[in-house]
Write a structure and sequence with these properties.
By secondary structure, this protein is mainly alpha-helical. It contains 6 helices and 2 strands. Strand 1 and strand 2 form a beta hairpin. Helix 1 (about 10-25) packs across helix 4 (about 55-65). The longest helix is centred in the middle third of the chain and has 19 residues, at about 75-90. It is elongated, with a radius of gyration of 20 Å. The protein starts with 10 loop residues before the first helix and ends in a 5-residue tail after the last helix.
Amino acid sequence: MNRSLPTRPNLEHLKKEAKTLLKAHQKGYSTVCETLRLLHRFKEATDHEILETDLSLNEVQYALAMDYGFSSWADMKHHVESLAGKSLSGNLRREGNSVWIDGVPELVWGKSGACTFAAALEAALAVTDH
């Protein structure tokens, strides 16, 4: 399969994705078999064989990491954590007592220019994948 990580990957989201895969396996959903087949022991296994085998969360995390193109969960985790550190330091700037996030547009709403909670939220999320 080999999927790509989102532009701004989040480790908590990836942990939840692995847990969701594990639960789907436990419920017998064959949609997880393609990812789990990345594990060496399932390379030649049928969907039925995969779904009948007990799995640990570590194994599912390993398969998910390989699906994203990494050699291990630890490698993917290190990569995601290194991106998080870079994005914060590169996007923040200080001016007096204020901290600005580069790339976030001015917080105004519509033609009135009023800064409302909705406008602030819209502007902050505009630079993310959400």
